[in-house]
Structures are given as structure tokens and as C-alpha cells.
Design a protein that fits this description.
Number of helices: 5
Number of strands: 11
Strand content: 25-35%
Largest sheet: 9 strands, antiparallel
Number of domains: 1
């Protein structure tokens, strides 16, 4: 009987959705305090695939991504999602969220987003958090059919590839130092 092999560490990243540039520096500072230094920040992408968040967060929503220097164990995404929910709650103004945080992780083969909502192919990780396999890598990013439209349309592929390159370099560095 073979013993289970521990999972390789994964690259943590967080999608930040907001219509307010004022809140962004505080949110990034809090994220860095919680999860370590940020080693990549993307440009802002228009979030125009749904108006779901507009009543709460306003018009002109944009998403950007931050990735962190430290790798995490994949199961750590549960704690990350719970913490990002608390950070969102810290940025409620007049009963409305100013920011929506979507943590996820990347390994060499896929991107998994963390969700507090069960639906279809999501996998329960415990404590009310679900894994949502969103993209997989096959000589480029490919979307699962259930993925979010903004991930499926390829608009983030370039920044996700940049994050993947950083992740691969970190894995090489870990191998060399072992």
C-alpha cells in the first residue's frame, strides 16, 4: 500500500473587484499583511460581463489581480477565503460592500477559485467553502464550460500566464534549495 503524497504548494492570487480606487491601497495593504508581500499586480480590467454587483458596489466596476510571494498548501485556500470575507466586511459603507475579493490558487495544471456558494461542479472543502475549478492549462488557458464569463473570454489569460511564470520560477527555486 502506498502512502499519500503531500500536495505541492500552490500560487495564491486574489481578484479584487471594486469601483473605488480610494479603497484599493488599504485593501492591498491588508492583503499583504495577511498573506505576505505582493509580487505581482495586474492592470485593471473592466468588469462588464454582469450587472450583478452594481446595485451594491456601483457602476464602473474593475477587476485586478494580485499574486503573493509565498506559496500556500492548496487546502489553505479555505482559511484565505474566510479571511477575505472578513476583509470585505471591514470595507462595508452604508450597508454596502466597497470591494469583492475572489481568492484562488494556481498549480501547473489549473486555476481553482474559492467560493462560499455551492453550485454545480464546485467541490466542498469544508467550513462552507467550495473549490471552483475554473481554468486548466494546455499550451494556454482553457475554460471549463461552467466558468465565469470573464474568465472564459480570455481577457485575463495574459496576467494569469505571468502569474504562472512566477509560480514556475518559485517551484524551480524551491527544488534547487532542497
Amino acid at each position: 500500500m502506498s502512502m499519500p503524497v503531500p500536495a505541492e504548494p500552490v500560487q495564491l492570487f486574489i481578484g479584487i473587484l471594486t469601483s473605488s480606487d480610494r479603497v484599493l491601497p488599504r485593501v492591498k495593504e491588508t492583503l499583504a499583511h495577511c498573506f505576505g508581500p505582493i509580487d505581482l499586480e495586474s492592470k485593471a480590467f473592466p468588469f462588464d460581463v454582469t450587472d450583478y454587483y452594481e446595485p451594491e458596489m456601483g457602476l464602473g466596476l474593475q477587476r485586478r489581480f494580485v499574486a503573493f510571494e509565498r506559496l500556500i498548501p492548496p487546502e489553505g485556500i479555505v482559511d484565505v477565503k474566510l479571511r477575505t470575507q472578513r476583509i470585505e466586511d471591514e470595507h462595508v459603507r452604508s450597508g454596502r460592500r466597497c470591494v469583492n475579493l475572489d481568492p484562488g490558487y494556481m498549480d501547473l495544471y489549473k486555476i481553482v477559485l474559492a467560493s462560499a456558494k455551492f453550485q454545480g461542479p464546485k467541490i466542498c472543502l469544508g467550513r462552507g467553502i467550495y473549490a471552483d475549478p475554473t481554468l486548466y492549462y494546455d499550451k494556454g488557458w482553457r475554460a471549463f464550460p461552467w466558468g465565469f464569463p470573464d474568465f472564459r473570454d480570455g481577457r485575463y489569460d495574459s496576467v494569469l500566464s505571468d502569474i504562472r511564470r512566477l509560480y514556475k520560477a518559485k517551484r524551480r527555486d524551491r527544488t534547487r534549495s532542497s
